[in-house]
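In pairs, describe these two lines:
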Amino acid sequence: MKLVGIYGASGHGREVMAMLPKVADTDYVFIDDNEQAETVNNHRCLSWEEFVNAPASSRQAVLAIGDGKVRERLSRKCEDADIGFLPAHAESAVILDDVKLGEGAVLCPFSMVTCNVTIGRQFHANYYAQVSHDCVIGDFVTLAPGARCNGNVVIEDHAYIGSDAVLRQGRPGEPLVIGKGATVGMGAVVTRNVPAGITVVGNPARPLEKY
């Protein structure tokens, strides 16, 4: 029996579990490092130690955690234990032409990646998120529900694009750039490059003032 562990039994983890097509001869379980019930939504919930020691012909994990920094830590933990990553693509997710997806990508229902796109490791596209043509996306990037990344955009590692945010289209050779670790707030409209580590909000998006 193969074993697939959805890492995280909170709301997003339950959504990812529900969207996964279930394959015969495979046991789908939750992995949770905190106190947990024995079952969640009719699936066993195991600690990390229980998951790695359970009898199985093979093990794979899906990192169903919204925080990219936590996903990076859990990714290293899985790699150290020789546990691979299952691509988690909803049946209604759309992937068009010449798309390169890094390991562990999660594409939630009604998300879309169009053409000539390169995406790094442990990418998350939540419900109705969109990545258009000629984009380059780094590792551990998160697109919240309804986020729209138009064409010719570069999103660097660990950036977070909030719900219903819009990234305007860049130009060939002159992409719009969202810097490493930047956060684009919910509903923001980004019309210019965002420096690394900055949070921007509003329409047009501007750096968030600290109070």
